[in-house]
Amino acid sequence: MKLILDSEKCTGCKLCELACSARHQGVFNPKKAHLKIIDHYTETGRETKLKSCTLCMKCVEPCPVEAIAFNGKWLVIDEGLCTGCGDCVDVCPEGVIFLNSEGTAAIPNFCEGNPYCIEWCPQEAIYKEEEVA
Amino acid sequence: MSYRWEILRVNLSAGSVVKEPLDKDWTEKYFGGRGLGAKYLYEELEGSTDPLSPANKLLLATGPFTGTIMPCSGKLAILTKSPATGAILDCSIGGHFAAQLKFAGYDMLIIEGQAESPVYLVIDDEKVEIRGANHLWGRGIFETESQLHEEHGMEARVLSIGPAGEHLVPLACIGSEYYRQAGRGGVGSVMGSKKLKAVVCSGSKDVTVPDMTRLLELVKKTIRDDVLTDTNLWVHVEGTPAIVEMSNSSGVFPTRNYQDGVFEGAQKINADRIRQLQPKKKACFACALGCGNYLRMGDSAVEGPEYETLALAGANCGVDDIEAIIKFNAECDNLGIDTISSGNVLGFAMEMTEKGMKDFGIRFGDIETYLKMPRLIAYREGVGEELSHGVKHLARKYGGTEFAMEVKGLELPGYDPRGSWAMGLAYATANRGGCHMSAWPIGDEAFGELDPFTIEGKAQLVITGQNYNAIKFSLILCDFWALSMDTMSEMASCVLDRDISTADLEKAGERIWNMPRLFNVREGFEVAADFLPARIFQDPLKSGTPAGRVLPREQFDAMLQEYYQLRGWDSKGVPTPEKLKELEM
Known about the structure:
The complex is a heterodimer. Chain A has a single domain (2-129), classed as 2-Layer Sandwich (Alpha-Beta Plaits), CATH 3.30.70. Chain A is 16% helix and 26% strand. Chain A contains three helices and eight strands, in the order βαββββαββαβ. Chain A has helices at 15-25, 87-91, 116-120; strands spanning 2-5, 35-42, 45-52, 68-70, 75-77, 98-99, 105-106, 126-129. In chain A, the strands form four sheets. Chain A has a two-stranded antiparallel sheet. A two-stranded antiparallel ribbon of chain A has the order 2-3. A two-stranded antiparallel ribbon of chain A has the order 4-5. Chain B is α+β, with helices and mostly antiparallel strands. Chain B has a domain at 6-202: Aldehyde Ferredoxin Oxidoreductase,  A, domain 1 (4-Layer Sandwich), CATH 3.60.9. Chain B has helices spanning 24-30, 33-44, 97-103, 141-152, 163-166, 187-193, 212-227, 230-237, 242-249, 271-276, 307-314, 322-335, 339-354, 367-378, 383-387, 391-398, 421-429, 458-475, 485-496, 502-522, 534-538, 553-567, 577-582, and strands at 6-11, 16-21, 58-61, 76-81, 88-93, 108-112, 119-124, 127-132, 157-160, 174-176, 180-182, 196-202, 280-282, 292-297, 300-303, 406-407, 410-411. A six-stranded mixed beta sheet of chain B has the order 2-1-6-3-4-5. In chain B, helix 1 (24-30) packs across helix 2, helix 12 packs parallel to helix 14 (367-378) and helix 18 (458-475) packs across helix 22 (553-567). Chain B is globular and about 60 Å long. Chain B starts with 5 loop residues before the first strand and ends with a helix. Classes of the chains: A alpha+beta, B alpha+beta. The A-B interface holds A 8, 11-15, 18-19, 22-23, 25-32, 38-43, 45-46, 48, 119-120, 122-123 and B 67-69, 71, 74, 96, 103, 142-143, 145-146, 149, 154, 177-179, 204-208, 212, 216, 220, 223, 227-228, 280-290, 292, 294, 296, 301, 303.
């Protein structure tokens, strides 16, 4: 699975990030969301893009306790194994893995197939793609 | 809780940074934003403080909803004593800065003193630094932000001033995210007087409410049933340019310095024209609507132009060329100038020139000269030096007081009170002067069902609107979400985890309206300052529905006295001790 952003529709309101951190971490905090909306002006224009899990698997191999696995659709973590070393946080090229309040890695799993962020987008700018290229 | 219970106090004279507790009792009475900021400013400033002296302060206030998923809660209140008016000034700026301040752990940032040389402030959670800003001083807002993003990352949010603020121009604004402004009353020049070029903020702390599940359910339902509805969606579909058509067809669209209320070029600068430019919508933090129209034309890009810019810098200057207005808008945003006041000042200068009263070298519709003006004003060069002082100053020096379109020294925005009498009372009694953000009774009059040409019931209409906005802007919800008091009560009760009834909110709104009034009374403002420019009383409008109309002076006086009486103020407009006691102030 993958999340796709229609950057023409996205207004950069970040309701998706707030919904994500609220659902999975019980707090409002964009730094604890499994997706990030980048929407800013530059001296040459405006850039709008989404950062979310692309299933690049870069977090899987470095895990010293093999706590992260791919179930064919999304990543899963064995929290009992996770030591909170943060190696996966460091390697995630999208910046959407972080340590949760228990000190273990919070790994994006697309809300197990029904991404909550999609429900919250007022512009219907986020959608999911089942097929992984 | 959604409050972090902490204030960050930075004194630029001493170079000190102190964290102190937020006053809990005051939050129960004033909540946040405009109200809590006014309370703090009143208590902390002495009367007669020089607005550009180190003794003045800048208060940046969040609200109890900031950082939560509450829709339309992204704005920041900025309060200070205005160098343009000498009255209290509260501005509100959109974007994402307020949320970052809350995530950094602070409900409010208070900036005091004056640095010796240019500085900027960097807030990253507990880490707060005052850094040298020589490399930024002199630069425009766009370049300043880009530079600071390079130094501090894209997720940090920036407030900054441009050359106008640095040169202490009383029309100077504070900008954020390129095209959003705390626009009015010279708030940017207060920042400039402190030699503070910018504030950069990023935060990583949690914001919570006692019952997260309940709030998520409530907000989700509210966004669907109460935000994304026809009442509000015009804001997303067209944005504020939609008002051009409403205003022009009601004959209240300020044209050529308020000489007319119908602009023959309106269809060239209305929402349809903006739509042809295919804007991409932009929202503030946590806003489900998204009103901003980001667009490019020629060599300019802007998030706008908003209605007020189209009115004051368009029709009011006799300019119907949308490309020129966009260019003017972008130039003002970068230089850090308020487009309302600058458009109003230029309209005045144009009329003075055309009437032969004083030659400012600029005439209505003279686009070439018009486009040179923002730079001259920001740098106080040539004719810009005179214009930079604002309309009130110009009229005092050169005459034309009767058509200097200001109240308390703040230039009027884009609604002609001759075609909407309650709007005249709203302007006259707004605490910061000629302001459309205190109450907007024109929505019920010229744009609604009420007869605009009677004073009957209008004092109460204005009071209800002022109190409503006072509490709304203290909880910090955006103007563009037209929510009911019932919804506001439901939201506030959920977030603050106590029963807050509509009666509680109404009382708080009244209290919050009185707070800045007390500030102004201390500064010597009373009945004589609650006034309108003579043109509104004397010169009949020329076209459309209000053709031949003025707001008759005696009707205005009667409306004002009724207003004072209903407010529980004396005949000079001073809140009575009984009223203050009733409001627990």
